[in-house]
Amino acid sequence: MTEKKEQKESYPKYAPGTHVHDKDIYERKITYTWWEPEVQYSWSLGPAMSRFLQELKAGKIIGIKCNRCRRVIVPPRMFCEYCYGPTSDWVYLKDTGTVETFSLSYLDADARRIEEPILIGVISIDGASPKHGFMHYFGEMKPEELKIGMKVKAVWKPENEREGSITDIKYFKPFRGGEE
Amino acid sequence: MKDVAVIGAGMTLFRRRLKETGKELSFLAAKMALEEAGIQKSDLDMVVMGSAPDAFDGIHMKGENLIDGAAAAGKPYVRVFNGGGTGVFAPIAGWWHVASGVADIVMVVCEEKMGSCYPHPQTAFRHIWDPIIDRPLNPNLIWLFAMEMNRYMTVYNIKKEDIARVAVKNKRNAVGHPCAQLADPNITIDDVLNSEVMAWPVQRLDVSPPSDGASALIYCSKDKVHQFTDDPIWVDGVGWGIDSTMWTNRDLCFPRYVATAAKMAYKMAGITNPPKDIDFAEPYDPFDYKELHHMEGLLLCKKGEAPILTREGVTQRDGDLPICPSGGLLGVGNPIAATMGQKVCEVYWQLAGKAGKRQIPGDPRVGVGQAWGDIMQMATVIVLRR
Amino acid sequence: MLEKQTDPTSPMHWRGDMQADYMYTNGVAGDRFFRHLMEKDTFLATKCKKCGKVLFPARLYCEDCFQEISESDWLEVPATGTVRVFTVATINAHGKKMEEPKIIALIDIDKTDGALLGIIKTKDLKRDFCGVKVKAVFKPKEKREGTLKDILYFEEKI
């Protein structure tokens, strides 16, 4: 470092702002305004996702093929986002796959602590192109048994409880070859 | 294209919750930057605002809400955002205002007030998931990073302790930063490895904290920069890139979109050998493994090599390739867009020799800042040079 | 291809909501403004040293001059004003018809260069309120919480 630089001031020169602790809020040491937005949505599924969910209701996983790059894509979509052409042929996939990655979550959706971990991960589905799959839960295994590269199989809700949702699959369980 | 120089920067305290409104935080950061540049609101031609999803502050179209505090009332103004990428994307947008010749002096202000969202900022994050395929599983955003981290560790056979070294380094680096939220001069690898498991492999000290804060940066065109300084810091290259939103159809072990953005910026800056041509970097580090992941994406080392460089001390402030000398998000805090304070303002202060206790020894000439966002798909890169 | 996939029994929509609550700090200037409102039946404003404008509600800075407000720039003003413009609202924020229409007015606050949105309590819904002098009616002091809701409504100042 040159001498000239050492004489320069240090930036940021100061740190403006007033720290507020949770306690200041609970004890109303500072005033605040509370707001609870009320808003609901109805998302259009579109043809590809409608079919996917419809097939889940029937106990099947369906993908779709891009005729240009030959990818078999799941979850299916109406177009291939890389080739930017329409996808064309529906392909039924197996309900087995490989654990691509996973986590053992001790947090719920609102970041609250939970005792028993949620087993969650990405499963690439057999019959689709490599690394193509979706996120789901794992079950019927101990947390320490869950490994990347492990083969898993979908456990479905009973037919009368399925509603056309990703949760029509309850979770994925360990799959050993030859099992049905 | 016109050459663009940085002539001032500013940032507020970063804390879990600040009393100031978003506008007031913007004002405090902007005021500091105007003071450093020695100019006033009337000298600004245009203003760019960066602020990430509206759902944090809870003000829809918050760019419009923040105008007054950004010294933009009555001026050409635009807000840009792309999630976590905003902290570097807003200064990229500011750069093109000047580089294109439409403005000579432009201020970029970035703001985030995550403390407004109850019960936790995570509650806002749940709305970034796909409502049909992801959200029915009731996901927490930490899951996403836990899954990416696990994939990265498994593919390259990386030990958790080598990742924890990043958190230790950055929280220690932050000790010299007046705005820092989680600076800790005594933190050890064991502290990180023994901290609460949130979503394995992510533990509490692997994660940067949610924060309130704001930062600001002022650009000047080459035509006018002589009025402010004899030794300008130039914006030498900018780049950005995004990958498919279908994150479950990509291998998460390497962030190829970071490489896309880096190559664009390096080409513009004439950088052909990144590890040699770049003196230091501020890659985005909301999680400790992300610093490593991003060093690889920025082509500062080979895939899977960043943990080794970290273990060998190369990335320390006095190492051969200092990484996150500011203390990063892990040490200074993570008010999403306002992390421009670490990722761009810090690079400017370091190159100008103004970083005080945080100053990198030697004579750094080229520094890189990078941010990352959306569903593990967006990267923004800036190269500054003295 | 669209034809092929369109099945009238398909689940074509997915319903959901956005759950998140917000706690907005009123800010440095706002906290002082609302604290005052909890104790007194008047308002606080801030005067910009540079342009002389009396900013209302009180602010930390003048957005035109970017001049920071200092301690000596704060002043107390009466909770009275003049209706600049108004509307008769018959539907609520969710688009539903209200039982009683409401007069929503933009009120220029006396001795300031600022204005506030307020409800005017009146039985005379047909009246032209533009230019009418009004005063704020507050909640009883012990019930005030330091938010805009501490002002119940405005009524004509006689």
Structure commentary:
The complex is a heterotrimer of chains A (180), B (386) and C (158). Chain A is mostly beta strands. Helices cover 12% and strands 35% of the residues of chain A. Chain A has one domain. Chain C has one domain. Helix content of chain C is 10%, strand content 42%. In chain C, the strands form 2 sheets. A 5-stranded antiparallel beta sheet of chain C has the order 8-7-6-9-10, with no helix packed on it. The N terminus of chain C is likely disordered. Chains in contact: A-B, A-C, B-C. Chains A and B meet through β6, β7 and β8 of A and β1, α1, α6, β6 and α15 of B. β1 of chain A pairs antiparallel with β2 of chain C, so a sheet runs across the interface.
- Topology of chain C as a string of helices (H) and strands (E): HEEHEEEEEEEE
Strand order of the largest sheet of chain C: 8-7-6-9-10
User: What is the fold-level CATH name, i.e. the topology of chain B?
Assistant: Peroxisomal Thiolase, Chain A, domain 1
Structural class of chain C: mainly beta
Assign the CATH class of chain B: Alpha Beta
Number of strands of chain B: 12
**How many individual helices of chain B?**
15
The end-to-end distance of chain B, rounded to whole angstroms, is: 18 Å
Mean pLDDT of chain C: 92
Enumerate the strands of the largest sheet of chain B in spatial order, edge to edge or round the barrel: 3-2-4-8-1-9-12-11-10
Supply the key terms.
heterotrimer, A: 180 residues, mainly beta, five-stranded antiparallel beta sheet, three-stranded antiparallel beta sheet, 3 helices, disordered N terminus, B: 386 residues, alpha/beta, Peroxisomal Thiolase, Chain A, domain 1, nine-stranded mixed beta sheet, two-stranded antiparallel ribbon
Question: Summary?
Answer:
The complex is a heterotrimer of chains A (180), B (386) and C (158). Chain B is α/β, with parallel strands linked by helices and 386 residues long.
Write the layout of secondary structure elements.
The complex is a heterotrimer of chains A (180), B (386) and C (158).
Chain A: H1 3-6, H2 22-26, E1 32-35, E2 40-44, H3 46-57, E3 61-65, E4 72-73, E5 89-93, E6 96-107, E7 113-125, E8 133-137, E9 151-156, E10 169-174
Antiparallel strand pairs in A: 3-4, 3-5, 6-7, 6-9, 7-8, 9-10
Chain B: E1 4-11, H1 22-37, E2 46-50, H2 54-57, H3 62-66, E3 77-80, H4 86-99, E4 105-113, E5 117-118, H5 121-125, H6 141-156, H7 160-173, H8 189-193, E6 197-200, E7 202-203, E8 212-221, H9 222-225, E9 233-242, H10 256-269, H11 274-277, E10 280-282, H12 288-297, H13 306-311, H14 328-332, H15 340-351, E11 366-373, E12 378-385
Helix pairs in contact in B: 4-15, 7-12
Chain C: H1 2-5, E1 13-17, E2 21-25, H2 28-39, E3 42-47, E4 54-55, E5 74-78, E6 80-91, E7 97-109, E8 115-120, E9 133-138, E10 151-156
Antiparallel strand pairs in C: 3-4, 3-5, 6-7, 6-9, 7-8, 9-10
